[in-house]
Amino acid sequence: MYKMNKKFFTNKKIILSICSIFFITITLINIDLSILKRYYNDTNIKLLLLSFLFYFISTLTRSIRWKYLFGKHSTKDWFIITSINVMSNNIYPARTGELTLFFLTEEVPKSEILSGLIITRFMDIICISSIVLLALSKSIIANINYKENLYVILIATITVLTIMMLNFSKIFTRISNFKLLPIKLKDFILVVSEYYEKHKQKTTNLLMISFIVWASKYISSYFLAINIFQTISKNFGFWEVIFGVTFSELTTVLPVHNFGGFGTYETGWALLFILLGLDGKEAYSTGFVFHVMLLLYSLILGLPSMLVYGRGGREPSP
To answer: Per the structure, how many domains does the chain have?
Structure first.
């Protein structure tokens, strides 16, 4: 049995590696160096600074959210931790950078960190779904004949997710009652449910903070994207950019999302923007530039934070 499992995981790694190499190869083949050079020479510094400002605001707001949920550290310390966490998520494959929170927050119990991650990620889904469905209804992808239906879907989705959020503990408690679930999983579900019930009064404020997190990130992405598109004389509306950016971000949870996410991120970007009128080389090249700039943003905040954290530059917990 052990040999079979080992062989399965070995074959899985080989398949995932082949897929990663495939996406990287497709990206490299379609990158137009002249577009990269044009962006380097013609980039609009004001748009770039605006983009980074809103990226900073998004990261700071994430820090405030952790501070509000967990306490323990100062906002400055949570900003350091969040910057390292975001950078790690951008570098490590398939969102495994989330694990850094467990190592960086020794004063917070691991069960609370895991419960907090699940709750905040659920709120992130509510925020992203709301913004993306609105973007879909506004973008040229949506057929004008179906806009009324899209608005109904938008309202229904937000309503269902919000109701689920407000009844989070009840839903988790009922899930834990399923007889087929392993005992350890049941215990874990109950821990998350109890943690949410304990902090239920914070739900509304956490949702508001989460919307600010994502609104800031999307505004940052918009300024960066139009800065890139201007260098190839292309114009896209706000909602089209938002839809395209989200499509790329969804690739970060895929198991084939390798270190740095190169290949998969650009492919997600390219698929959407080819539909919007770019040719293959324009789509992959602009996606590559966008991806590199996002990585650079996270490194600008993350690397100094690592140095401060490593030198013990955080304030002691109360």
So the answer is: 1
Give the pLDDT of the chain (318 residues) as one tens digit per residue. 444 445 544 565 677 677 778 778 888 888 888 888 888 888 899 999 999 999 999 999 999 999 998 877 788 999 999 999 999 888 887 667 778 888 888 778 888 888 888 888 888 888 887 787 777 666 555 444 555 565 666 677 667 767 766 666 666 666 656 666 666 666 666 677 777 777 777 878 888 999 999 999 999 999 999 999 988 888 888 888 888 888 787 776 665 556 767 888 888 888 888 888 888 899 999 999 999 999 999 999 999 999 998 776 555 444
Closest CA to 153 of 173, 130, 170, 172: 130
For residue 156 the two structure tokens come to 């229904």
Residues 6+ apart with CB under 8 A from 140: 237, 240, 276
- DSSP label at 107? T
Q: Is residue 47 part of a domain?
A: yes
Cα dist. 202→68, 121, 195, 196, 206 in Å? Answer: 8, 15, 12, 9, 6
* The token pair that represents 115 in the structure block: 């419960």
Residue 182: both structure tokens together: 């392993």
In a domain, 200, yes or no: yes
Distance between CA atoms of residues 269 and 123, nearest Å: 24
Q: Does residue 8 sit within a domain? A: no
CA diameter of the chain: 63
Domain of residue 137: give its range.
19-310
What is the Cα gyration radius of the chain?
Answer: 21
In a domain, 2, yes or no: no
DSSP 206-269: HHHHHHHHHHHHHHHHHHHHHHHHHTTT----HHHHHHHHHHHHGGGGSTT--GGGTTHHHHHH
